[in-house]
Specification:
The chain is an alpha/beta fold. 40% of the residues lie in helices and 22% in strands. It folds into 2 domains: 125 residues, Rossmann fold, CATH 3.40.50; 90 residues, Orthogonal Bundle (Arc Repressor Mutant, subunit A).
Length: 227
Amino acid sequence: MMRTRETPLQRIRLLYVEDEENLARLMRETIGKEFRSFRLAMNGREALERFRQERPDVVVTDITMPEMDGLELAESIRSIAPETPVVILSAYSDTEKLLGAIDAGVKKYFIKPFDPEELLEYLEDLATKIGERERYRLGDSFLYDRKERRLYRNDEPIPLTRRELRLIEALLDEPGHLLDSEAIRKLLWNGEASNDAVRVFVMRLRGKTSRDFLRRETGRGYALNLR
């Protein structure tokens, strides 16, 4: 059975902020099903609380709202997670406020009334870039998706244990992408394992992937094959 790949939009969580309830519900009905999740917030303060709790991938927000406007929300989000894109929805009367959009870290803005399809098209491009940022190309046709926490080879998923996933992510984070046996023992078993246990663990991981997926550098440790 052929595995159906997700679209870029189906991989992201969207927080949509709009104080006009009917418009918010209309957007959810129009584009909400396209996303992994589509959350609504009715004002900036509610949106900020949702953002802290759920950490969506993208925020789309109206600019004029009670309690906290869209630019204040964007500034608050930037202080928490500067990599999160914020898209502003604005009426023509908000032109002066839009001058501060760049300082607030806003990625893009749309003038109301806007075409939902244009917004969707932009968000799809954004989702693609976000996905590429979370993916790592490894040797022998492997790809590690950090967002999904899955390893693929030629688009086929490879089942891994929690320890195996933890090692891969640690190697991706480590400068030089290399860890010695002692570091791996501390990482995976709090030091309560032998070097033989590390070797068996590596052998099993190679059995699921390939011998070259995780290479051993004599006297230095283990490293992912990044190429």
